[in-house]
Amino acid sequence: MIGGGPVGENAAQYAIQGSDRTAAIVEAELVGGECSYWACMPSKALLVPGSVRTLAQHMPGLAEQPPLDVEAVLARRDSFTSGWDDASQVSWAEEQGIEVVRGRGTLTGPRTVVVGDRTLVARHAVVLATGSVPVSPPIDGLAEALPWGSRDATAMHEVPGSILVVGGGVVACEAATWLAALGARVTLAARGGLLARLEPEAAEAVEAGLRDAGVDVRLHVDVQSVRREDARATGEGHVHGGAVTTTIDGEELRTDEILVSTGRRPATDGLGLDAVGIDELEVDGRQRVAGGDGWLYAAGDVAGRWQLTHMGKHEARICGEVIGVVAGGGDALDVVGVDEDPLTQVVFTEPEVAAVGITHAEALERGMRVERVAIDLAVAGTALQRDDAGGRVVAIVDADRDVLVGATLVGHGVAELLHAATVAVATQVPLSRLWHAVPAYPTASEIWLRVLEALRTQRRAA
């Protein structure tokens, strides 16, 4: 496995479990990867305290809340990253029979990977699990200003007094949320809108939430230039020098720091794909690389299908199973691939956004006869959890098959409601049967009954 993040770990584990096969993980940084140290875990650790404080502010008897204790929040974040020490994850790998090889792996021929002065030759397969790297827009003076990237934001050791967040995607919205909660004066600037790939209700709610938190949200604007006084490489998570002056649509904005979060691309540089005749990574539903002669696989961000840890781990499990089946003399087609599996995602802003499957726009693009239901997230369970809860639920139905193909929830704690919709979308249970899945009262899950009721009402009116 070239890459020791969650994807490489899962692929290795599934490829060798229950057998006498061996595996090696090649990792140049920390075993556990981006998710464990610079993305999922630290970002959620930074977001949760603010979410808890906001929830308390909406509950009678708890409304007066002190500011967050920044030092305590950062210390808790550090505990989830193990202080950026991967010893425990290396120990886990070794307990599974997986060797950890430190360094950068490069393909030099079929099943052959060179790491420094060591050559590894695989008996069965090589898996590419190198993840993705951030991309930065070609803005005048931006690179010279040494802006923060997502790693600086999740590993920050000091909260800037003021910061400009450039971008309108998930990472930008989440970072703006926790930075504002920790006391920074935040401006968010995006060339388009927010969360462009989700239902419009999600973008509208997140924008309103950011504004309520004091974030200066500027959408459909052009960041034209960046200038920094005394830019210095002060280290990850520290303010990188003097004040930053950014020109946005001709107006100058002065902040202590600037964070760039404008997307990522597959990390394929230096992998040596040309040495094995691969021009571009393309994978099938079983993670086999086209042109790889059956021994080369790719999973996670580098495979180009999804950029979400849980989806990458799902690909890795499929990949590992395929390798195990083929190594045992079986057929890769005996393993169910990921071709039709629905995308699930959560945006941990205030309010949260949780989504599965496809949006209304995507369903129309696919030529489906679509029914769209949008209702308030308002049942006894949500009202009990938080006063003035608010929120929306959007359900997308393939009318010809009478199955749910997409759902988006916006509101407090909706991440924990998502899996019910995921099961419905993934298994394609007819709505007539879902009617008999009775939600407990008084829980937030009762919203799914309200969705089905709204759909019935909508059909009767048609």
From TrEMBL:
Transmembrane segments: none annotated. Residues 2-314 form the FAD/NAD(P)-binding domain. Residues 345-448 form the Pyridine nucleotide-disulphide oxidoreductase dimerisation domain. InterPro entries: Class-I_Pyr_Nuc-Dis_Oxidored, FAD/NAD-bd_sf, FAD/NAD-binding_dom, FAD/NAD-linked_Rdtase_dimer_sf, Pyr_nuc-diS_OxRdtase, Pyr_nucl-diS_OxRdtase_dimer. Keywords: FAD, Flavoprotein, NAD. Gene3D superfamilies: 3.30.390.30, FAD/NAD(P)-binding domain (3.50.50.60). The keyword Flavoprotein applies. Belongs to the class-I pyridine nucleotide-disulfide oxidoreductase family. This is NAD(P)/FAD-dependent oxidoreductase.
